[in-house]
Specification:
Blueprint (H helix, E strand, L loop, with lengths): L4 E2 H8 L2 E3 L5 E2 L1 E3 L9 E4 L12 H6 L4 E5 L13 E4 L2 H15 L3 E6 L4 H12 L5 E3 L9 H7 L7 E5 L8 H8 L3 E4 L13 H8 L11 E5 L5 H10 L4 E6 L6 E8 L4 E7 L2 E7 L4 H16 L4 H4 L1
Parallel strand pairs: 4-5, 5-6, 6-7, 8-10, 8-11, 9-10, 11-12, 12-13, 13-14
Antiparallel strand pairs: 1-3, 2-7, 14-15, 15-16
Helix pairs in contact: 3-5, 4-9
Length: about 325
Amino acid sequence: MSFLWTSEDLVAAMGGRPLGLMPQGISGISIDSRSLEPGDAFFAIKGEAMDGHDFATAAIKAGAGVLVVAEGKLPSLGRLTAPMIVVQDVLAGLEKLGLAARARSNAKIIAVTGSAGKTTTKEALRHVLSAVGKVHASAQSFNNHWGVPLTLARMPADCDYAVFEIGMNHPDEIRPLAKMVRPHVAIVTLIAAAHLGFFRNLDEIARAKAEIFEGLEPDGAVLLNRDDPRWKLLDKMARAVGVEHIYGFGENARATFKLLECGLHADHSIITAKIGGQEITARVGAPGRHMVQNVLAVLGAAHLVGADIARVA
């Protein structure tokens, strides 16, 4: 049987202390006892409203292979006899495991941010890249301070591509997550007023989204919406942190990945686009020009990570 993590690697990555008879390995990572699968490691994360340690018994009943718990919570766990890995802080342990997952991976990594279209773009990338390799991507929109390390920790060692969604509500939230993910391609879908309650204007939102550039791998690429009024600001900020490969998608005549024709219909669109020197015709299975923009980003990113566009379009 193949494991997501052997127990030895799990303990080593987190610098934890094993208690009890450890399994040979674990098949998945869970932070929710209700969706836990037998053989998963259950991480007892303490949130604002609930503490995962309160659900340790439920996790054991659901078939958890091992519990990851905080040192300070051991007294409250009573006489539980399940295997445990004891760490100082469970979320910090998950972050360490995520970093170890990224370090062992040879996958091409894509990270997506923006004021809208993140989840749609991520799911479309998952779909198209699955035609040419093994793909790992965020579940739902796990894009915050626990969702990103969780998605990293769940990344199989043998995947070919991985897609991460990175979100924010405030400045300085994207930067540490991008540095964990270390993408080869970073996409900014668009800048809009989705988070304006926390920012004075759209320029401030753009600057916060631009934090994703700081996690880019050396020689990595940035993919920006060429039709977005904040294109110039984002381009400037990418260059300011040393990014050399900056590409645009959209209808703009200077877009690298350019929309040539677009037929909008009630339930779909048919587009022709120039991607990597090829003219590609594709059916977009949802209506709306915003969906067309997302597909241009998807095709551009797929090209940048070396996927055969003729096979994925």
